[in-house]
Amino acid sequence: MSSLKIVPHPHPALRWKSKEVTQIDAELKAMISQMFDLMYESRGIGLAANQVALPYRLFVINPSGDSSMKDEEFVFINPEIIRRNGSEESEEGCLSLPGIYGAVPRATRVVVDAFDLSGRQFEMDVTGLDARVIQHEYDHIEGVMFPDRVSAAVMKEMQPLIEDLEREFHQKQAAGMIPTDDELKRQLLDLEKLRT
Ligand code: ZN
After folding, report:
1. Of 78, 79, 126, 187, whose CB is crowded by the most CB atoms within 10 A?
2. How remote is the CA of residue 140 from the centroid of ligand 1, in Å?
3. What is the maximum span of the chain, computed from C-alpha positions, in angstroms?
4. In 3-state terms, what secondary structure has residue 28?
5. Alpha-carbon torsion 40, 47, 87, 156, what sign?
6. Distance in Å, CA 139 to ligand 1 centroid
7. Helices (H) and strands (E) in the chain, counts
8. Strand order of the sheet with strand 58-61?
């Protein structure tokens, strides 16, 4: 397996509607382990599969951000948010939008249903930061990014920074350092066929 990399906006993987995985095998476990490594290296607290250009419905979190706190590590495979309650606003960032932050309204409490690494189904009822991270990562696998959910005023502040990222990405594509969108989408479709 080639090594994974966090891809920045506007990589097409980030707008992909991810597909359910049908098998939890050694290769998938190795990918998930790499996702945790990349998340800690980048000082993140959550990472979705499509942020490393894998079109699968799964994400990892560790709300403590501390790699030594293994009991805070959770893998959500084929998750569904089955309940949302309340609303509160707090600042978020995203490893696919480096240096960009903004206040995002989220449910204060969510109940999520998912499968763990051993294929066991579990349900989690969480509030606060845990609920926020889960909603942020769940959005990713639906192809939704946090700027989609901010107010017009916050968006106005973030827009120039987002455009900088887009310009940089398109320049790298023009220079052949990153494949074209069509090629990236072909790669995603191939990965999708492989395990969904
Ligand atoms: Zn994110």
Report:
1. 79
2. 7
3. 47
4. helix
5. positive
6. 8
7. 4, 7
8. 46-48, 58-61, 74-85, 109-115, 121-127
How many angstroms separate the CA atoms of 61 and 45, rounded?
6
Distance 147 CA to ligand 1 centre (A): 10
Instruction: Say if residues 60 and 87 touch (Cβ distance below 8 Å).
Output: no
pLDDT at res. 1:
57
Integer Cα distance of 103 and 24 in angstroms: 35
Token digits of residue 110: 């969510």
Q: Which of 72, 80, 92, 137 is an active site residue?
A: 137
Q: Which residue has the tokens 């996702």?
A: 35
pLDDT, position 194: 86
Asked if 141 and 58 touch (Cβ cutoff 8 Å), the reply is yes
How many CB atoms sit inside 10 A of residue 96's CB? Answer: 24
Hey, what long-range contacts does 175-184 have (CB within 8 A, 24 or more apart)? 181/12, 184/11, 184/12, 184/13, 184/53
64 C-alpha to center of ligand 1: Å? 16
Query: What span, in angstroms and rounded, lies between the C-alpha atoms of 79 and 14?
Result: 17
What pLDDT was estimated at residue 153? 96
Q: Percent of the chain scored above 90 by pLDDT?
A: 96
Q: What is the mean pLDDT of residues 91-108?
A: 97
Token pair in block for residue 52? 């490393």
Any catalytic annotation for residue 137?
Answer: yes
